[in-house]
Amino acid sequence: MTWLAEATRTVTTGYTGQAAGYPSLFLLVFLGSLVPVVPTGALVSSAAVVAFHRPEPFTSALVFAAASSAAFLGDIALYWLGRRGMRSKNGSRWLEAIRSRAPEERLAQARGKLAEHGVAVLVLSRLVPAGRIPVMLACLMAEWPLRRFVRGNLPACLAWAATYQVIGIVGGSLFPEPWEGVVLAVVLTVVISAAPGLVRRVR
């Protein structure tokens, strides 16, 4: 949560200054795609809140462009590293780091759904909390070529960025001050992200 607070502060500070907030958002989301522990959804929602309260035109469109392109490129880089890990000894460390984030049960479910529904599962995996990594691993184990992964990942990243931006816009519209909307957006995204894990523990 300390990292999240600092990252959110960086994004909001950048927006209050000049256009530096957009490169900051792009970089944070890109790194978050490579390091799955980073809550990128909260960053996008926070940036969307701040953009909603800015008088300049096209701020929301720029947030969407920065977030979706960063997520897309980060996913492609992570998948490329995973394919490299499947074929080389040095890359296997990165692949093992990715796999440690996906429980065996989730991975088995992802492989079954991927075999049955194909690209549609890849699109939905970006919208389901903790669903991206198991499905990406399933694609690696099914030996999907990079081109096929790219075709499925593009609409997935667009839908993901739009979803979290809507959460931010809703939060921003409910409060007169941007920081209040940021707090609500962060809380909502954290709750959404934590919900599947809590449900599994209760079961």
* Count of β-strands: 0
The ordered H/E elements are HHHHHHHHHH
Helix content: over 70%
Radius of gyration: 17 Å
**Strand percentage, roughly?**
under 5%
Coarse shape: elongated
- What is the straight-line distance between the termini? 26 Å
Would you tell me the overall average pLDDT?
77
Q: What's the total helix number?
A: 10
For the largest beta-sheet, the strand count, sense and barrel status come to: none
Structural class: mainly alpha
Question: Which residue ranges are poorly predicted, with pLDDT under 50 across at least 5 consecutive positions?
Answer: 1-7, 14-18
Question: Which oligomeric form is depicted?
Answer: single chain
Task: Give an account of the 3D structure.
It contains ten helices and no strands. The chain has helices at 2-16, 21-34, 40-52, 59-87, 92-99, 104-117, 119-125, 132-141, 146-174, 178-202. The protein is elongated and about 50 Å long. Mean pLDDT is 77; it is low at 1-7 and 14-18. The two termini are 26 Å apart. It is mostly helical.
